[in-house]
Amino acid sequence: MYGKAFAPEYQGALTALSVNSSLVDVLAAGTEQLAAAERSGQRGEAARSGLAVAEAHRRLGQVREADRAWKASYRAARAAGDTAAMAWALWSGGTLARQRGAFPLAWRLLGLAAELGERGGDIVVRGYSLAGLAETGRIQGDYEAVARLHEQLLAEARKRGEARHTVWALEGIAQIHRNRGSYDTAYAMFEEAAVIAAGADDRRGHAWALRGLADIVSVRDRDPERALGLLSEAEESCRAMNLSSALAYNHKMRGNVLYRDGRYAEARDLYEQALAEFRAMSEPRGEALSRLGLAKSLARLGRDSAETAAELADLARVLEHIGLRHAREMVTRAQDELGVTVEVVK
After folding, report:
1. Fewest beta carbons within 10 Å, which of 203, 306, 314, 317?
2. What is the Cα Rg of the chain in Å?
3. pLDDT over threshold 80, residue 293
4. pTM greater than the 0.70 cutoff
5. Around Cβ 6, how many Cβ atoms within 10 Å?
6. What are the structural domains, with CATH classification, of the chain?
């Protein structure tokens, strides 16, 4: 039913690159091809090779370089009159904006990308851009607004037999179910995503699915060792492909598993590691979630309650500012769990 996963963001002379190519290799190949295209005045090729450069930088956590690269790709595409390439550049920029926690900008860029994709007749970039909008809403906790779009995109991906997008949609819907407490449904969807990703040789999608399964196994089944085993398997793929952000989220989830098992000192160390990784790549959502886990772990290890309350108050303010509704609710639950009072200072 599903073919082998492919990476449509690797275009032009870079179409031979695999979805599983190391990001270091993608960056090297993209940079070389971009320079060649610019020397020969091939603006369309410069736009498409520049897209791969932007995506490699983004996934490696190199925010400034990614920002420069997607904007250069857009300018080259506009100069070439290539509407679809313009859409892809905007998609990359919107995805980067979401990664940086700039949600209003992400909504604007991804919406423009979807419009240009439709105008340029590129259904793939249109689909990726709509998926980006859905993921942005999901991350912000606006489930009612985006659940239907997730389902629509899943149906379209299944119809086309597009493994990578099917996996993405399954994981997004599964995460919504997990956050609502429907663990059995979430597990089944993460499990299906893992099977499809493995069959399509989509190591990135498979790693995210394993992370989701580990979370459910830890919460629902209270089986920390199995959860840690799943995370170790996922980490192998993250390291092989240099997936900096996915690896940091893997470490943060490992901290969650250890915390739930009462292994607070080990959890503290993992949260500190993840926090440093997220700060290095300027990813505020991951940073805030790691700070939350760290605050809870330190409280369990005897930190002064006033210090814990102050930390949670600051986190609540940060999450209100970013616009992460679900994460803000997690701070409230931490307040109740630890018996501290949080006053949000806006």
Report:
1. 306
2. 20
3. yes
4. yes
5. 18
6. 1-136 (1.25.40.10), 141-238 (1.25.40.10), 243-346 (1.25.40)
